[in-house]
Structure formats: C-alpha cells, structure tokens
Specification:
The protein is of the alpha+beta class. About 30% of the residues lie in helices and about 15% in strands. Helix 4 runs parallel beside helix 8 and helix 4 packs across helix 11.
C-alpha cells in the first residue's frame, strides 16, 4: 500500500488542499495575541480572506460565503460569514446554515468504508465481486468515447481500493462521453440531484427504484479504463454506498446515521431536508454569463425528497457546524469529545495515499495522491463539492478548514485559487509579527 509523508507542502494551484490554509492558522495561534485575536469572527485576522468573501457577495457573484477555521480539538470553528441564504433575502448565513455539499459527501462515504474494513467486514484489496457478484466479469471499452460493443475483458478485478481512489475504471455523467454517457443516462446512473427545473444541456434521467437496482444497472455497462490503471473521477463512491449496505446489513443512509451522524452529533446532515428545517437551507444558483439563476430554492428544493438512490458521492446536505465535527473527528484520528467513533488506524490509512502503485495520475498531481474519498497532499486530506464548497484537514499543523457557498458549476469562478492566494497574503504580516 502506498503512503505519503505528512510534511507541509504549499501549492498555489492546489484547489483541494489545505496546506496554505493550515499554515495561516498556525501563524495566528503562535502569535502572543493569537488566541485573543482568533475570536469567533476572524475577519480582522484574515483581512484578505474577508475581502474575498465581501467581493464575491457584494459583487453579486454569490449570495453568500462562509469560511471556517478550526484549531486542533477546539470545540467549534471560527468563521468569516457574509451574505444571506438567498439573493435579496435578509436571513444571514451562519454555522447552522444548510448547504448542498455534493462531492464533500465522498470523504464521509470513504471513511464509512474504512470503518467496515476496521470491523473486518471488508478488505482494502478485496475484489468488488465478493460483495457485488454482478461485477465479476467486467468488460472495458477499447476507446472510452467509442462504441459500447467494442470492448476487451478486464485484466484484473475491481477492488475496494480502486473504488476509494477513483481507479476502478468506472465512468461518471461529468466525465464520460459518447455512447457511454448516453448509456449512463438511459440506465439512471446519475451524478447527483440538482433541481426540479429542467436544466439546459442536462437530459432528464429516471432514477432506478433503489441503490441495489442502480448498482445492477451500472454492472451491465463497460468500464472506461482497466481497473487500477489510471485515476479518473467516477461513480465509484456512489457504488460504495451499495457495498456498505451489503457488508453491514443495513441501508446506506441508516449506516451513516448510526455510525457517523448520531455519534458525531451531526444533527443537521441529511439526504432529505425536513420541512421544518427549510428556513436554514440556502438557495443554489446556476451562473449564466454574469447573472445568477436560482435553480434550487428552499421552498421548492429537490433536496426535501428522500432519493430512491442515496448517492455516497453527492447527495448530502450539511451545515458548516456539522461538517466541522466530521473534520475534527478526522483530526482526532477517530475521536471526538473523548468518544471513539472510528479506529485510529482506519483514519490514518484512509487519509493516506491509497493509489495503486501502477495507476497513472493527472500531470498536475505532483507529489499528490488519493485516499478514502479525498485528495492527499503532504499532511492534508480533503475534497470539494460541485456547488463551490471545500473542506480539508492538515495533520501536520493540527487544523481544519472549510469554504461554503452555493453556485454551479464550481469551475466558472476561480474562487478556490483566489482563496489560497488571499490566505497567503494574510500570512505574510502574521509571520513578520511573530518574528518581531
């Protein structure tokens, strides 16, 4: 199993990393006045980060932005919060605001799998077909964009490790093309819920009746790549939800509730937002040119319905306070408030580089890897979401950080890169003060 050293490494291009964020927090905490300055709202300590949030909100690029900064096992994260639940609204966002976290669901699912490995119910390099027999004899497309009947047999079995690290060879609605993309849509292999409204360019997809049926549909389609051959963003974390069901004997949502959400006190994390909590739910916006179009409002949100297929890669709604508790548990190697939720080794392995040794990685991933549902760089582990969210922990600097907002597609703005730059700007004077 490949592992990565936990040493600090900063990268200006690292949009899913925590190194720069964590270094900033360490500088503040180490200043003589650091703990006093690190009050609940930390805008004065992070003026560039605060200005970034204000620029995006005041400029109408987003309705809101909330940044969290947590040191070690402090029982709550400090914040910079700007904006309201919806454009033109009056209710300001705070730690209990509800956000669609989309792919920030993936690290939660990944750690659920690590928990079952720790329980002895799964193995990291166990073949997927041991759990889901339909995946035993997979075919692989000769051309990932080519005809579905031009395939070769898979050279090796898909393993749990492959699934955790996006090296299983599976496709995704946002990465597949050509005939495979159409086959995914026709089979109900969706990538997550967006809106009750029709979205231009996004064909309507009829969801299968259950996660089990969804998995069976997926097993009938060819892979894009040979298992273990390359990193390719995929539906593998969604499929792991079904693996969790079979291995644990309970539904995927129930497993998360019993083993994560209840023990961690994550009382505001949902597959379906209760009607009596809608006054905390943000609106999500599609960016059209320089304008924002409301595509999912609290009053008519698709996230009030329990999905037929609860996706472990995309389907959760959570609050900054709740997600910070998950991050704090990871930072505590499985413990939170003196209670052990996960085994220490399970967390250490899950947040390390689990990439198969022979798998190719994107050229930009210098010194990086992938763990249980999140990217690994030095001492950091984390991932982002399709509506602009981001979260990370840094073990070397004992800090957890997150960014919450709601717009899509996330890549339409350079927000994450700008966030790193802003924190680097805030870091320079703090270093000078510490050295004085």
């Amino acid at each position: 199993m490949a592992t990565s050293p936990r040493s600090l490494h900063l990268s200006r291009r690292a949009i899913f990393r925590g190194g720069a964020y964590a270094a900033t927090g360490l500088a503040v905490a180490s200043l003589p006045f650091g703990r006093q300055l690190f009050a609940h709202d930390v805008s004065e300590a992070y003026p560039a980060a605060a200005a970034l949030a204000e620029r995006y909100v005041n400029g109408g690029k987003v309705a809101n932005m909330l940044l969290t900064f947590g040191m070690g096992q402090e029982d709550h994260a400090h914040t910079i919060a700007r904006g309201t639940l919806a454009l033109g609204g009056t209710d300001k966002v705070d730690e209990d605001t509800l956000y669609r976290i989309y792919s920030m669901t993936k690290p939660i699912t990944g750690m659920a799998v690590m928990m079952l490995i720790d329980d002895g119910l799964l193995g990291l390099d166990q073949p997927l077909y041991d759990i889901l027999p339909a995946f035993r004899d997979m075919q692989v497309l000769v051309d990932p964009d080519g005809p579905l009947d031009e395939t070769v047999p898979a050279e090796r079995a898909i393993t749990i490790r492959h699934m955790l690290t996006h090296t299983a060879g599976l496709g995704y609605l946002i990465t597949s093309k050509g005939p495979l993309l159409k086959a995914y849509a026709d089979s109900g292999i969706v990538g997550g819920r967006v809106s009750r409204l029709p979205i231009p360019g996004v064909p309507p997809v009829e969801s299968p009746a259950s996660l089990a049926a969804w998995a069976e549909n997926l097993a009938q389609l060819p892979l894009m790549y040979q298992p273990g051959a390359r990193w390719s963003y995929s539906a593998s974390l969604d499929l792991l939800g079904r693996v969790i069901e079979v291995a644990s004997g309970v539904s995927f949502p129930q497993f998360l509730k019993d083993r994560f959400f209840d023990p961690l006190g994550m009382s505001s994390t949902y597959f379906a937002v209760p009607k009596n909590e809608l006054d905390r739910l943000t609106a999500n916006y599609g960016v059209v040119g320089s304008s924002l179009l409301a595509i999912d409002t609290a009053a008519n949100s698709v996230f009030t319905d329990m999905p037929n297929v609860p996706l472990g890669g995309a389907d959760l709604v959570s609050s900054p306070r709740d997600y910070d508790r998950f991050l704090r548990m990871l930072l505590g190697y499985g413990e939170l408030d003196g209670e052990r939720v996960m085994g220490e080794l399970a967390v250490r392995i899950g947040t390390s580089n689990l990439m198969p040794a022979a798998a190719s990685q994107p050229p930009s991933w210098v010194g990086e890897g992938h763990g249980a549902g999140g990217r690994v760089l030095g001492s950091t582990f984390g991932w982002g979401g399709a509506a602009g969210t981001l979260a990370t922990v840094d073990y070397g600097l004992d800090m957890r950080l997150a960014l919450f907002t709601q717009y899509t597609p996330a890549q339409v703005y350079s927000l994450r890169e700008e966030y790193v730059d802003a924190l680097e700007a805030d870091l320079a004077p703090m270093r000078r003060n510490r050295a004085a």
